Amino acid sequence: MELNIYQVDAFAMNVFEGNPAAVCPLEFWLPDDVLQNIAEENHLSETAFFVAEGGYFLLRWFTPEAEVDLCGHATLAAAHVIFEHLGYGRSSVVFNTRSGELVVHQSEFGYRMNFPATLPKTIEVPIVLKQALNVQPQEVMVGFDYLVVLKNESEVRAFSPDFMALSRLDLRGVVITAMGDEVDFVSRCFFPKLGVNEDPVTGSAHCELAPYWSQRLKKSSLTAMQLSKRTGLLRCEVAKDRVVIEGNAVDYLAGKIWVNP
């Protein structure tokens, strides 16, 4: 079977920036093990698969290790493929996912994604997390990841975790963050449990980061920078139980893959 595949740099203004995601449009769902093998073969943090159904698209995300419930940058990449390569004529696209309905709109800055918000709660630091951090946090919270607040942007840049210890944690991963020097907040994201030691730019993490910083800074519109090697710029807007995340996407490749379903 021949399938189209695209690789898109999400939350990027130029190629080689942001977070690369593979996108595979499908006419029907292939077996889960085939989808997982494609994601493993791609060896990117996420591969997105979607199937058109009525007026919306069914969307799923896979890391090289497992299917996940939510992925921002691969959603952005999937919307970009639909708008730019599949001749989609509407101004917004609706995805039906494991995290509910996600809507992506075209915007002047690129694309606006409307995601469910998660407000992290302060917790006592688990022993395994203490061993993994190698730094004294100002605060540790839990959303769908562990959220670790550091003193400043310099500490976030210099952070060097114990990946083996992180892989033993019960949640998806660890997100470190601090107030930014030139943006409202900065972050880095680590998911060794999913085969991704450090994710370049993580849209889903901003569903928990933006509500925290919105409450702390007392503002609903925020600018954010993820300080991975590739870096990524995001704009976030918090409105009650939703987070709007805005970013651009850039094509890197378009090609064909062959699989035996």
From TrEMBL:
The keyword Chloroplast does not apply. InterPro entries: Phenazine_PhzF-like. Keywords: Isomerase. The active site is at E46. The keyword Transferase does not apply. Gene3D superfamilies: Diaminopimelate Epimerase, Chain A, domain 1. Pfam families: PhzC-PhzF. One of its GO terms (molecular function) is isomerase activity. GO terms for cellular component: cytoplasm. PANTHER family: PHENAZINE BIOSYNTHESIS PROTEIN (PTHR13774), PHENAZINE BIOSYNTHESIS-LIKE DOMAIN-CONTAINING PROTEIN (PTHR13774:SF17). Belongs to the PhzF family. This is PhzF family phenazine biosynthesis protein. It comes from Echinimonas agarilytica.
